[in-house]
Amino acid sequence: MKRDSESLLEALPSDWKQARLLGRIDRGDGPLPVLVEAGEVFDMSGVAPTVSMLVADAACDAVHGRSLGPLDGLSLSAERDATPRILSPVDLQCVKASGVTFAVSALERVIEERARGDAARAAAVREGLEARIGGSIGTIVPGSEEAAALKAALIEDGMWSQYLEVAIGPDAEIFTKCPSMSTVGWGADIGVRSDSTWNNPEPEVALVAGPDGKAVGAVLGNDVNLRDFEGRSALLLGKAKDNNASASLGPFIRLFDDDFTMDDVRGSEITLRIDGPDGYALDGRSSMNQISRDPEDLMRQAMSEHHYPDGFVLYLGTLFAPTQDRDQPGRGFTHKIGDVVRIATPRLGTLVNQVTTSKQAEPWSFGTGALIRNLAARGLITA
């Protein structure tokens, strides 16, 4: 897998020289919040030492930063010991995710549940379920009278599911994906549990918000899914979702402005490409215009009655649910170590990660305490 500066430049938004991008790099002494404007990189640590503080203070103004030169001259890499190194673009924000936000993914969650996490049973369950509700669910507005009527009919048929509740009911599924500071960025390894035998990537758009819950920008993400764990029991969601290196974001947050708005998120076409070490290749797509709940509604439901003093990131969910067989007929898709996953959309760029196990991925050791100590040592915060 290429992880050099050339491939990062190829991963930027198609109009990156006009975009306003927010992210983090490490020049050898610790995380540095940076703003890219008109293709030029600005060190924003003199304005605020973290990305979360820049967003909270509405301080993303290049005039107040220190120029580091053009982005295409920085030779950014994702290698562990590289200088400078690109990092996940978020830091202290709470990392949230919304699930079952597309009709296809809703059906796949029901299939996982009814198959009890057994990939071999999925094909038969899928055939029966699609014959009953496959077409109707995609046109239902969550929380509407039509949704309530469908719910009543499915209960009567003995086909109701907790996943259908969050797919078409009034309340979205919102959960905490992982701790603050634990996401990985562009070019890093992404981890799946070593004991998972049925899993897949989840190509998504994530929104970034300040303490007020208002989205300030968007970024590509991979919210890795372990279908066997969650399929056995929804109470295993934490074990299925929150593992070392299991959440990636990048390459940069694209800030909203007159040229890039929430409507661009709503109209995004997300493409996925998986290239396996065995020569296997899979192409997929997730169209945001098919999402069941509007992104701003999901942001409101994520905010709910919470307080996020450092803001939050919200994965919006995905349409992608791979059913193609990889090895054995009827067992569908699952990752292999060494798979390279590319998630892309023109105005956000391309997020590239290589699959390993959560055991083998670089251990997460730089948490909030380490960040505070590092910023204090660099004179960026004082007692």
Automatic annotation (TrEMBL):
> Which residues constitute the signal peptide according to the record?
none
Q: What Pfam families is this protein classified in?
A: FAA_hydrolase
Keyword Metal-binding part of the UniProt annotation: yes
SUPFAM superfamilies in UniProt: FAH
Return one GO MF term.
hydrolase activity
The record places domain Fumarylacetoacetase-like C-terminal at: 174-355
UniProt keywords (A-Z) are: Hydrolase, Metal-binding
Q: Which family does it belong to?
A: Belongs to the FAH family.
Q: What is this protein called?
A: Fumarylacetoacetate hydrolase family protein
State the organism's lineage: Bacteria, Pseudomonadati, Pseudomonadota, Alphaproteobacteria, Sphingomonadales
